[in-house]
Amino acid sequence: MTETESQPLNSDTKEDDxxxxxxxxxxxxxVDESDPTFDAVGLPENDVDQEDVDQLSVVxxxxxxxxxxxxxxxxxxxxxxxxxxxxxAMLRQLVGRDVLSQFLPVIDDxxxxxxxxxxxxRGSGWVKGVSMIQAKLNGTVERLGVTRVDAxxxxxxPAFHEAVATEPGSSGSHVVEIYQNGYTxxxxxxxxxxxxxxxxLPGATEDADVTFDA
Length: 214
Description:
Blueprint: H1 3-6, H2 50-115, H3 125-143, E1 146-148, E2 161-166, E3 174-180, E4 183-185, E5 188-191, E6 193-198
Parallel strand pairs: 2-6
Antiparallel strand pairs: 1-4, 3-6, 4-5
Helix pairs in contact: 2-3
């Protein structure tokens, strides 16, 4: 055995922990922390995968686009529901108007029949019975949203009145006689009142109310 081989290792020998070239301290992986590109997690900033950053930007852009589409879809659906409700309400009014128009001649005939009864017979039982039927019919159509145009002695309104005659020499500003009653269903005019126009009565009100007379 040679002298070199028999020489024991010195247990006091320490591993060289001298810093790597540069002004900073070397880390366990040999990265200089004083390097300006060294980030908080211990990796150089230039080691961040640029492809991942670009992919994240694309995903965020898609997220914003999908969110915008969702908000637009919700607004469009709300508008669709509102339009649908309005159309259904209008359809109900149109159907009700068509049905009511079939009953108006019956109501007119009943009104004329009661108006033609002589005063001497108005207290009889059969007249009272017919009057009760008329009141029930008027109450039924009123519950359906039907109102009778209150035209007598009111200012003439072409939106609700149809003038078929005018008193000679008058201004024709007011309704002085009703030939046929008019009706409305909600805000919809079913039939205008057929009237005769003339001058206003002294002290007559200027209100153009629309009511149903049971």
